[in-house]
Amino acid sequence: MSSAQDPFYIVKEEVQGSIDKLQSSFYRWERILSDGVERGQLAKELLSNCESIQWQVDELDKTITVAARDPALYGINELELEKRRRWTSAAQTQVGDVKKALVSGKELSISGPTNANGMRRELLRLPDSHQTDRSNHYHDNDDFISSESDRQLLLMKQQDEELDLLSASVERIGGIGLTIHDELSAQDKIIDDLGSEMDSTSNRLDFVQKKVAMVMKKASAKGQFMMILFLLVLFIILFVLVFFT
User: Fold this and answer.
1) What is the pLDDT of residue 178?
2) Which tens digits make up the pLDDT trace of 139-150?
3) CA 78 to CA 57: how far, in whole Å?
4) Cβ 28 vs Cβ 49: under 8 Å
5) Confidence band (pLDDT; 50, 70, 90) for 118?
6) Which are the contacts of 119, defined by CB distance < 8 A and separation ≥ 6?
7) Are 98 and 50 in contact, with CB atoms under 8 Å apart?
8) How far apart are CA 45 and CA 47, in angstroms?
9) Per-residue pLDDT reduced to its tens digit, 90-102
10) Which residues form the T-SNARE coiled-coil homology domain (predicted)?
11) Which of 75, 96, 186, 213 has CA 20 to 30 A from 111's CA?
12) 78 burial level (CB within 10 Å; 0-12, 13-18, 19+)
């Protein structure tokens, strides 16, 4: 899964944007000299934002703990887990420092831009450290994307091989089905031919029986006796020819 699709990085970018806004508002709060209503209201808003961001960072930290139990299941390695832990730790420190400054009512000196910027970076770890962390994040992301791309290509290759095996199996089953169909068609034809022959034989047998009945009906008793005698003699002759010759 690329960093653009990883839920951790999606939430991380939102949280980082909230931290950037918090730091910008904190800078505006420290520039307000008087302890008036505006400064108090802004301090309350900043404290509320600190609580919200700390909760979001804690939730991200919990997801890291869950992923660390089975990194292979989530497609990440120990280097990626450590990088995520460093980011959540840095985010918690940034928000914690802002919260401490707000609670204690500490005011930063604004007499010199250079001095103020140095103190502000030390307190909040603003632009320089943030840019360095983001640069490291992009570098680590390149390695992660590369390894993830290789894993996706391997999975696609395995799926292609499985599809090829499945296609070959389907072709074999199709060939067997065609063979069975041809065999059944041939057997159906044989059965039809046998049925036609049986019908023809039955018709001829019925015709012979009718002819014999007609001959027997027309013949007299003497004629019938002579016919029976003739058939008996014919049977004896055939019997002798078959068994004694």
Assistant:
1) 81
2) 555 555 556 666
3) 20
4) no
5) very low
6) 108, 109
7) yes
8) 5
9) 999 999 999 888 8
10) 153-215
11) 96
12) exposed
Helix orientation angle between 78-104 and 127-218, rounded to the nearest 10 degrees: 130
What does the pLDDT average to over 42-65? 90
Kindly state the tokens that stand for 8: 């951790």
Q: How far is CA 64 from the centre of its chain?
A: 24
| Ramachandran bin of 70, using left for φ above 0, alpha for ψ from -120 to 50, beta for the remaining angles | beta
Read off the tokens for 238. 């055939």
What size, in residues, is the chain? Answer: 245
Rg of the chain, C-alpha, whole Å: 50
Q: What are phi and psi of 2, to 5 degrees?
A: -75, 160
Helices (DSSP H) in 109-220: which residue ranges? 113-124, 127-218
Decide: 88 and 57 in contact? Cβ < 8 Å: yes
Give the separation between CA 148 and CA 61, rounded to whole angstroms: 22
| CA-wise closest residue to 67 among 134, 10, 7, 5 | 7
Smallest CA-to-CA distance from 24 within 119, 126, 129 is with 126
